[in-house]
Amino acid sequence: MKLTDKISARDASNPFFTFEFFPPRTDQGFENLMSRISRLSSLNPLAISVTWGAGGSTKDRSLELAGLTQHSDLDTILHLTCTNMEIGLIDQVLSAAKDQGIHNILALRGDPPRGEEEWTASDPRFTRAVDLVSYIRSIPEYSSWFCVGVAGYPDGHADNPVDEDTEISRLKEKVDAGADFIITQLFYDTNHFLLWYRKVRAEGIDVPVIPGIMPIQTYSSFSRVTKLSGARVPESVSAALAAISQDDRLVKDYGVKLATETVRRLNFEAGIKGFHFCTLNLEKSVQRVLENLGWAGSPFSTQNKLIIDSSSNPPPSNIDSTLVISPSSATNSATVGLSTLATSEGEAGQGELNNAATWDDFPNGRFGDFKSPAFGNQDLYGGFGISKNEALALWGNPKEASELTQIFLNYLHSKIPTTPFSPSPLSPESQMIFSHLENLTKRGWWTVGSQPAVDGTDSSDDVVGWGPRSGYVFQKCFVEFFCGLKEVEEIVKKIEEKGNGWVHYFAGDYKGEFRTNVPANGRNAVTWGVFPGQEIAQTTIIEAESFLSWKDEAFSIWSEWASFYRPGSEERKLLEGVRDDRWLVSIVHHDYKNKDALWTFLLDGH
C-alpha cells in the first residue's frame, strides 16, 4: 500500500512511525535481521524502509530484503539513488520493485562516488533527485504505481552547501515534480529544525514531512556521523556527551532520552505526527524511545488468509481481497514469523542469543560479530570524508613504495590527521603501542589496524574503557598490515614453527587468495568486558567471514585512492600495483596477560 494512503487512512490524531534498515553484509547477519525486523514489527510501524548502496552496490541485497519485508505484511519503502548508476539500472530496479509489490520509493541523488571531487552521473538522465522523481512520474506504469518520497535537509546538504532558502526551494522543486512525502536527514538541533519546518510550510510545501530520528548509539559514531552529515550539534548536547563519553551505556541512555525529548517537542510544538527512525539495524534504543513515548503498541497479530494463486485462479468475488495471499507471499511471511520463534527473548540454552534484542547492542564495526545485523555498519555518507583536493594535499603524489611508507609514518607521528584507511587521528589507545607500529611501518609493513593487550582494566578508563561503569575490560593484542607475499610466507613459517598455538593469523590478497591457521568456524574474541548483572560482552571478534569482508573493502580503498590520479600516471600505477600484489595480514596473540607478546614474536630476530 502507498505510504500516503496509509497516512490518510489512519486516525489523524494518532502518531505513526517508520523504521529504516540497511542490508547486512553477511548471510547470517541477513538472517538475524529478519528476526529483528519481525520483533520490531510488533511495535506496529506504518512502514519500513531499506537503504540503497552508492552506485547500486547493494542492489541484490536491498531488493531481496525489501521483497521479503513487503511480502511479510510490512509495507516497504525502497531507497533508490542515481549516484554513479549504470545506464538502464534504474529501470531494472523500478521494474523489479513493482514486480515485488513494492509501492514506495525514496528518490535520492545519493553520495558522491569515492575518488571524485565533484559528483558525476553515469546515466546522463539523472543528475539530481528531482530528475529521478520526474522520470518516475513520466512513465505511466510507474507514475500510477509508486508513491515517491524525497529527502529534506534541515541542516543543509553536506557536500553541496547552499543557503537555507535555496535548499528549501530545491525541496519545493522536488515536490512540484511529483514527490508525495519528505523524510528528513538526521538532526540534533530541535530548535533549528522547528524554524526550518515552518519555512518549509511557508514555501507552500504541504506533503507529509517526516523527521529522521537517529538515537545516539556511541560517542564515536555520533561524532563521525555529525561531521560527515553536517548536522548541527547544540552546545548542550556536546557538553552532556563530553561528560559521559567514556561510558557506552550512559551514552546510549542519553541517546534514548534525547530522541524521546525531540519527538515530544516536534509533536507538541509543530503538531508533527510521523517520525522515521534510523535503526542502524539495532533494535533496543528505538524500542525504548517508543516505550517512553507510550507508542509501543500491542503485539503484532496476523489474520488467517486464503492462499490462492491469483495468476491462474482469481479469488472468489465474495472474499475480501485483503484476506487473500499468494503462495510465495505466504511462504515469505511464514519464514519471517518462524525466524522470530528461534531467537525469542528469555529462551534457555541460546547462549549469546538469550537476549535477542540486545546481544549485539555494543559497538559493532569492522571486527564486530559477523552474525549481527549491524556488522560492518554501512558508512552512511561514503568516501574518505574529505574532498579530492584535501586528500591530495594530505597524501601528495606517491610514485614509489618508500613514499607510501612515509605517508603511514607521517600519520603515526601526527604530521597528517588521516590516511585512506584511518579517517581520524591516531587514537590514544594506538599511542600505547606506537613504537611497535612504527617499527613495522619502517619495515614497509603498512599498519591499518591494531590494539594493545589489556588485562582487566577498569571499564571507566579514559583510553581503553568502554561499556557500563563498575566493570573490567580485556583485550588481546592484534595488528593488521599490508605486506608482500614473501613476507607473508616468512610470517606463516614462523607461526607454524614458533607460535606454539598462541598466534592466529588471516592473510588474503586482491585476487582472492586466502590463508589462515584458525580452525574452521573458529572465532577469536579479542575484546570483551565483564559487567554487573549481565553476561560477558564480546565487542570485537576476528574470524574468517569478518576478515574477508574487511579484506574486500580494504583492497577497494586502494582502487579508490588510485582513482584520484589520471590513468597511466605513476601514482596510479603504484597504487594499483600495491592493490594487485600486496596481502592484507591480521595477526592475534592470545596471551593478553603479556602486553609485549605479539611484538616480541613478530620483531624478534629483525
From TrEMBL:
Pathway: One-carbon metabolism; tetrahydrofolate interconversion. Transmembrane segments: none annotated. One of its GO terms (cellular component) is cytosol. Residues 356-602 form the MTHFR SAM-binding regulatory domain. GO terms for molecular function: FAD binding; methylenetetrahydrofolate reductase [NAD(P)H] activity. Keywords: FAD, Flavoprotein, NADP, Oxidoreductase. Its cofactor is FAD. GO terms for biological process: methionine biosynthetic process; tetrahydrofolate interconversion. Belongs to the methylenetetrahydrofolate reductase family. PANTHER family: METHYLENETETRAHYDROFOLATE REDUCTASE (PTHR45754), METHYLENETETRAHYDROFOLATE REDUCTASE 1 (PTHR45754:SF1). This is MTHFR SAM-binding regulatory domain-containing protein. It comes from Psilocybe cubensis (Psychedelic mushroom). The lineage of its organism: Eukaryota, Fungi, Dikarya, Basidiomycota, Agaricomycotina.
